[in-house]
Design a protein that fits this description.
CATH topology of the largest domain: Rossmann fold
CATH superfamily of the largest domain: Aspartate/ornithine carbamoyltransferase
Bound molecules: phosphoric acid mono(formamide)ester
Largest sheet: 5 strands, parallel
Number of domains: 2
Mean pLDDT: 96
CATH class of the largest domain: Alpha Beta
Order of helices and strands: HEHEHHEHEHEHEHEHEHHEH
Number of helices: 12
Structural class: alpha/beta
Radius of gyration: 19 Å
Strand order of the largest sheet: 7-6-5-8-9
Low-confidence stretches: none
Length: 307
C-alpha cells in the first residue's frame, strides 16, 4: 500500500484499513525481533507546534524500529523559524529538502492540509487545531477495538467527554462510521457535545447515533467506553457546573455496570476521567492503545515511505 499523506480519517477506505491492520500485525513480529533496517536511508522530521508525549515519542520510536533516522523539534513555536515570522508553508517546503516524511502537530485547524498542499514529501497529521483531527490516534484506537473485541462491525461505542474540541473523538467517529451496524453514543454535557458536521456525516452514511448526558444509563449496553478529558476551566467558561465532571468519572463502582467483554479506552493524558484503580481491570485498554500506537505508526510510516 502506498499512501501519499495522512491528513484526515475520511481518506481511509475499508480495504485500506484492512491492509493497514495487516501491516500492523506484521510490525508486531518486526518489533518482537527488535526492529528492522529496511528504512535505514529514510529520515523523518518531527515538527510539533504543540505539546505531546505519546504521538511524538511513538512516531519517533516507530521510525527508529524501522531503521530510519529522526530530526525533531518539539517546541516548533519557540525553537523554529516561526519565531522569525516564517510561514508554515515555507517551513514545510524547506524541510522537504532535509527529510523523507514530515510528522506535523500544528495549532491551526487545517494546518496539516495546508502543509500537504505545498509539501514535496508525505505529511502525517499528528493533530491539528482545536476541533480538528488526529487520524493516527483514531487508527490506533480502531486497531485496539478490533484486537480487543474481535470485530468492528456491530460494535457499540460510548464516546465521552469534551466531544466539541476533542480531535481524537472526531477522527474516530469518522472511522467507526465506515463499518456496518455500528452504534455510537455521544455522552457529554450540552456545551461539550459533538459538532453538527460529524452528525451530518453519520446521517449521510446511515450510521446509528444517540446524544446523551447520562453515562450510567448507557454503560450496560456498550462494547467500548472511550473517555476523553473535559478541562475544568472550560466547564466554567461554558457555564457548566464544575461538579458536572464527576458524572463522567470512571471508577470501580461505574465499572460494575460495564459488560465483562467491554473495553475502557482513553487517548491519554487523563486528568479526572478514570481512577487509577481501574488500571488493573482486564477491561482497561488505554495502555494497550499506547503500545498499539507504535505498531500502527510503523505501518503508516512504511505505507507513506513505500512498503
Ligand atoms: N493521545 C495523544 O495525542 O497524546 P499526546 O498529546 O501525548 O501526543
Amino acid at each position: 500500500m502506498k499512501i501519499r499523506h495522512v491528513v484526515e480519517s475520511q481518506q481511509f477506505t475499508l480495504p485500506m484499513l484492512v491492509e493497514l491492520f495487516s501491516i500492523a500485525d506484521q510490525m508486531e513480529r518486526v518489533l518482537a525481533r527488535g526492529g528492522t533496517q529496511d528504512y535505514q536511508n529514510k529520515i523523518m522530521a518531527s515538527l510539533f507546534y504543540e505539546h505531546s508525549t505519546r504521538t511524538r515519542f511513538s512516531l519517533e520510536s516507530a521510525m527508529y524500529r524501522l531503521g530510519g533516522k529522526v530530526l525533531s523539534t518539539e517546541r516548533a513555536n519557540t525553537f523554529s523559524s516561526v519565531v522569525a515570522g516564517e510561514t508554515l508553508e515555507d517551513t514545510i517546503r524547506v524541510i522537504g529538502n532535509y527529510a523523507d516524511v514530515i510528522v506535523l502537530r500544528h495549532n491551526d485547524l487545517g494546518g496539516a492540509q495546508r502543509a500537504a498542499q505545498v509539501s514535496s514529501i508525505p505529511i502525517i497529521n499528528a493533530g491539528d487545531g482545536k476541533g480538528g483531527q488526529h487520524p493516527t490516534q483514531a487508527l490506533l484506537d480502531l486497531y485496539t477495538i478490533y484486537k480487543g473485541i474481535g470485530t468492528i462491525e456491530g460494535v457499540k461505542v460510548a464516546l465521552v467527554g469534551n466531544l466539541t474540541d476533542g480531535r481524537t473523538v472526531r477522527s474516530l467517529a469518522y472511522l467507526l462510521g465506515k463499518f456496518e451496524r455500528v452504534k455510537l453514543y455521544f455522552i457529554a454535557p450540552k456545551s461539550f457535545q459533538i459538532k453538527q458536521d460529524i452528525l451530518d456525516y453519520l446521517t449521510k452514511h446511515n450510521v446509528w447515533f444517540e446524544l446523551q448526558s447520562d453515562l450510567k444509563k448507557i454503560l450496560p449496553e456498550v462494547d467500548v467506553v472511550y473517555s476523553t478529558r473535559i478541562e475544568p476551566e472550560l466547564l466554567t467558561q461554558r457555564g457548566e457546573r464544575l461538579e458536572t465532571i464527576s458524572q463522567y468519572f470512571i471508577d470501580d463502582t461505574i465499572l460494575k455496570l460495564l459488560p465483562p467483554h467491554a473495553l475502557v479506552m482513553h487517548p491519554l493524558p487523563r486528568l479526572h476521567e478514570i481512577s487509577p484503580t481501574v488500571d488493573t481491570d482486564p477491561r482497561a485498554a488505554y495502555f494497550k492503545q499506547t503500545r498499539n500506537g507504535v505498531l500502527i505508526r510503523m505501518a503508516l510510516l512504511a505505507s507513506v515511505l513505500g512498503y
